[in-house]
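Thread title: Can someone regenerate the structure for this chain?

I was given the following input by a collaborator and told the matching structure tokens would be attached. They weren't. Posting the sequence so someone can regenerate them.
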Amino acid sequence: MSGHLNGLQKKVLDKAPQALFVHCLAHRLNLVLLQSLTNISLCRIFYKTISGIPSFFHHSSKRTHNLGPLRIPTVGETRWSSNSKLLRVIINDWNTLKGTFQNIIDNHSSDSTTVQMAKGFISDFNDFNFTFIAHVSNQVFQTTDILFDVLQKRSLDINYCLTHIEKVKTIIKEKRCDTSFQIVFEKCLEKTELNYSGRQYRNMTKEEVVMKFRQLYFEILDNLIMQMEVRFQDLKKISFVSLADPEKFETFSSKFPNDKLQHLEEMFPKIFNNIPRLKNELELIYIDKDFHDKPLQDVILMLHKDKDIYVEAYKLFALIATIPSTSVSVERSFSCLKRLKTYLRNSMTQERLTSLANITIQKDILQDLMKGSLHSDIIELYATAKDDRI
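Best answer:
Regenerated them for you:
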């Protein structure tokens, strides 16, 4: 996938051997969630089950009508973070969904296939295993969703992204404790009754049943932590980027990070061939409080004004600014381009559908317009139009 054998990466490295390849961090996080949440059999079954809920309702407008104002988001197979929205709806509207499935079963006009599928979903909602995995997964997504946003929106600030990756690792490790497990377990008991005398717990005491779910909780988090360590371990090769982290300037002013400077020299010996001068320039920057706690872009602009003075330092900061954290703008699985391609093929002769596609592409502009009087203007336009023009 990275093209290290005969792809674009290999062709670039042939021309520029010192070019630094950074695999899209957002895509790595997607793989972390995919591998950690499907390696466990119960989790894999759970996600296969919930992916069928949107399909169940979207298959028929009659089924969708039973939801009322509630809407079920679809799940993208290539983007695992999309499961977060679906899980949030399932947990927040738990009883509403159960009631909807029951209404479908009780409705005499429902066909046999619809009734059987609705009975299956109610059975899942009444299963404590299903409830438990739903809440643990939701806890995971609450932590990783923020990181996804950071990796996709702060693509030109690699320091900021790496800092948040470490923060998420720390948060997940802190949740791996008996206190966090007990909180999740009690939330599940509020939604679904745990039948300690059930067939699957026939030869187990109540304490052993609780211990079983405790082990499952730790197993899920351990898988997630391990995947994050493996997927992001090679980021150590760009540890030198912390040299340009304004949040660490005050710390570096009292203790200079010689190990990171040495790593930079090993990575780019031809570009940074005057390490003593670079160190002196960095020491001056670290001491100067005007540079502290500012965004990387602002620091670069300040150095640009004195680039004849901070020759080596400006070169370093400019290099770090060119290291992106994500390539989501060109990855079809992270954008609407894949959906639009098929959509436009079916709307080539229909101006209305093409306009809807433009609205999808320029949704940021639409959101700004909606802050004003867009809705009232549209209503007024239709109110004054003749009936045959509507």
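The CA atoms of residues 126 and 177 lie 26 Å apart.
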